[in-house]
Amino acid sequence: MLKRLNSIRYAYIRSHFYGLFLTTVTLLAILLSIHVLFEPIWLSKTSIFVFIILYLFLAFIFSIYVGFKSSGDMKDRFDYLSVLIAQLARGNYSSRVYDNDDDEISRIGTELNELGEKMQGQVKSLQRLADEKSEYAKSAHKAATIEERQRLARDLHDAVSQQLFALTMMSQASIRLFDKNPNAAKEQMKEISATALKAQTEMRALLLHLRPVDLSGEPLQMGIHNLIEELKQKCQIDFNLHIEEIRELSETGEEHLFRIVQESLSNILRHADATEVTVELVKRSEELFVHIADNGKGFDIENNQEKKISYGLKTMKERSEEIGGTFAIRSKQGEGTHLDIRIPL
Questions:
Q1: Mean per-residue pLDDT, 97-120
Q2: How confident is the model over 188-225, as pLDDT tens digits?
Q3: CB-CB contact of 342 with 287 (8 Å)
């Protein structure tokens, strides 16, 4: 209630009451001075106070009415500015406010419109730079392929190779223990099974990176569907898909988005231990909204020590920004992870 009384409308009414108070005091002082100095018959104490009370009553009603009436237009204009600022903050840089008055509020609206135009131009420049960068990337395809092979080789050595080595050692130990201590051998076989499952998941995630970076001529919608169908055959994860056809997205934008989805699914396979994944690509107004969520174990974003997760998130954030988008992540241990990406169209 107190917060509402601090609004522009009530500030107008308070200013009218303040003017009413000053006017009343001034009138009362003048009338009393005339009564004391000249003592006219028609001006008595009773008539003075009757006049003041009648004046206060009428002025009080008029103050409320005029305060609401005169502040309504200004409140609406400030609301328009607030909506425009909120739209700019959400990445809708095409929003504009139109004010034909020639005052301070109108100048603020004009400056916000100019800011929106500049930000819209910067987004177009970013998208154009992304297209140019894509052309340069195609010319350097061989170097990128070699670098990707080296990275995969490092990942294979750091993860799968070591796990396979551990499987070999534990299998040999289990064979020796089998006759002497069957229970201990059984427990070790359970560890072998868990390690094998982890190595299998790691290998699937690495194989996901072996898919082509581009869509090979497929539309984005079809490429993601094919990717999900392939994963459904290899892992026990339920996928919830809601993917709309987006025609306004450039070829470079589609490739970046496909790679972002690919990277996020790889992270889910390797780190999340999830059983359900949601992937949404929908058009809302003049922007593309991408939402990827899992019900896995999640992680602490502030104190994240997992270098591979950090590298993958950094890569997805950079790809989003290259096509003029915004990237946000929400995660908590035991409550899964949610990625939200907004890209102006």
A1: 83
A2: 677 766 666 666 666 655 555 555 545 666 788 888 88
A3: yes
Q: Which domain holds residue 147?
A: 140-210
- Report the CATH number at residue 185: 1.20.5
Both 173 and 256 in a single domain?
Answer: no
d(CA 259, CA 137): 14
Give the residue-averaged pLDDT of 84-113: 82
- Do 328 and 218 share a structural domain? yes
Is there a domain that residue 115 lies in? no
pTM above 0.90, yes or no: no
Q: Are strands 326-331 and 276-284 parallel, antiparallel or unpaired?
A: unpaired
**224: part of which helix (H) or strand (E)?**
helix 220-232
- DSSP structure string for 244-305: ---SSS-HHHHHHHHHHHHHHHHHIIIII--SEEEEEEEEETTEEEEEEEE-S----STT--
Q: Using CA of residue 54, residue 55, residue 60, residue 61, what is the dihedral sign?
A: positive
Q: Give the end-to-end CA distance of the chain in Å, rounded to a whole number.
A: 41
Same domain, 313 and 202: no
With tokens 């497929």, the residue in question is 218
